Amino acid sequence: MNVPPTTIYLGLDLAWSERNPSGLAAAWGTPSGAHLIVRPHHLKTTAEIVATIRATCGDAPAILAIDAPLLVPNETGRRLAEAELAAAFRQYHAGPHPANRQLLRRYGGLRGEEIIAALASDGFCYTPTIESGGGGRLIVEVFPHPATIVLFGLPRILQYKARQGRSLVSRRHELRRYLDLLGSLIHADPPLIGVDRIWEKVDLSDTGATALKAIEDEADAVLCAYIALYGHRWGAARCRSFGTVDGGAIFTPYWYEQKTPAAPINQG
């Protein structure tokens, strides 16, 4: 019987600008389950992020799931990946922001492409999808909102992020729901062990906007790491990619019973 090698599953909630912190978390295990080994924490510069990933992974197989645009060939407009994902999850209000090179430069640069280029010498390569049980060192683009819809069976997205019309009180409530749902991943298939203890003693009742945003980043980083693990467990059976290989793709858990799975990712 072949035993799959242990893999590092990393989640990076990458800010579009180095002026803002990015959340990073990591788990260690196999497609059948993993333990959280790096509690979610914050980094700012691209150089810090790359150095931390290298130190965390060593020479081990790894899957890095990043919540940020990674492959963005279009100068303006939006990518097919965003259009397709928005259409598939429209009723859940889970569509992503449009990404183009002009917009990303305005925020400070093409950070996703920079990370891919920097980690290429460490054997990491960009991929539009994760194959069940596959090996190597992969970097994949993900997006938390649709993942929460599928993984937790939600009727619409959790409204924990700062948006016009959302009060701090309502955001605290929604973030508490999010943290509790992440804690339930210890019972999921595959399980993520240790996530239930991260925020169990965190009291959000008096949390200000800045501290709330910091916890959001941590939570999204953990979910990104779980998407890497989930994709490694299930692959195309329970996940799909939106977009194209050359134009950028977003990988996410997808319905496998309630909905009819969509066609595989386009090749052009």
TrEMBL record:
Return any one Pfam family short name. Answer: DUF429
The record ties this protein, via InterPro entries, to: DUF429 (IPR007362), UCP018008 (IPR008306)
Indicate what this protein is called per its UniProt record: DUF429 domain-containing protein
